[in-house]
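Slide 14.
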Amino acid sequence: MAELVDDVPIARTGAAITVVGNKMLVWGGFTQEIEGEGDDRFPLNIPLPEEDDEDYPIEEYSITEQCWRRHQTSGKGGNADNIPAFGSGSVMISMGGLVYLYGGWNDQQFSNDVFRLDPVKMEWEKLPYTGYPPVQKCHCGMVQYQDKLVVFGGIGMAGEPGRGGGAQYITCHDTTVTYGYSWNNELHSFDPNTGHWQEIDSPNRPPPTGAFTFTEIDPDHAILFGGRVEHTRMNHVYILDMKSMSWSGPHLPANQDEPWPTSRTLHTMVPLLDPQLPRARREQKVIVVWGKGRDNKHVRDMWILDVASMTWKELIVKTRARMFHMTSAYYCNHDYSTDVIIFGGNIQRKSKFDKHVVTEMRVLKFGTVQSLQGLCCDVCAVTLDCVDPNMRMHQQCYLSPALLKEVQDRHQSIHADPPCCYDEVFLTSKQFVDAPANIIRNEGQHYSYT
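Slide 15: predicted structure.
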């Protein structure tokens, strides 16, 4: 059951988020309520969905319609055990039209279960497994490789002696996290079709860490940035070759003058090109958004990384920074425009009596400048359905085989994924980083930054 809502969802931090088609799904997280009276007031974290909420709601944002809907979800076979109860620090991705959620923390315990959501039926299923799964944990990373899930790192239970894979575990002594647990650098793959977990013995893996970003950049590679172990935060970059399951890195600045993001955790990273595009292998760029720095304060910058050259460029954005927020990317028309959607998160409070969490959404729009030929092919593709069949055949006689194929490919792309219908589309250079200005969108209002 879907309910169209006039307002944005409850303010939250640390939720799981992913995009399926032209819809963004948000699950779980923590919200806050102010408890106590007078000078004894304090914000109390409350996990979502709340225990008394029997609808197990998932929030859906339609990117093309620009509206929120709230869906009631259920467990397969009417079994509530098939519904995840771990809404904070989980990781969630879409693969093959289905949604997969792994791990998390609910203020009582960690999880290492995998749940699958059918976004049409809004039905959850807890997947049974064989093999040796990762430890129960949160703040890990998960990406897709072919038809498998690849999970790395995180903070959670201590590893078992004698387990394979070559993973390391560092006991956590930081009482602000959770005393007695451990940071790890486990690497596993999970096959949803067979339910089998496989430990991977991967050379040159990153050190044990959690609260980093782990992002697919093309069909065979994923990138890791930042993270934390104990009181140490990092700003290193590692690349995982998922064909060989081997790492390259750490990539670090060659000198103090080289532009490079500061160390951080609880940040987000998304690719600016659809990772499934053939040209993503040579042209991919990723954006890093905000986070928590070495001094435990908000990091207020954004950075764009050219993966091939491993060069960074800072993006100055005049808006209030957050940490433990959620970010997803929507690839409009696949090749020409990307919306980077930032939702929720933790802001710096104006006083100790204020809530940390926010609910506002920000959308950063990136685009490519097309050639005149490309624009003409787009016009032909968009109007193809409106033309009389006889006239269509007459027009196609004037196109070369190569141009005709390009028009047909773009026509199929439009039907597979309708164009994004934002109020304004801003075109930057093809490299996404050389434009004098971009647009940041906030609920119908436009703000420029340089």
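Speaker note: Residues 415-450 have pLDDT under 50 and may be disordered.
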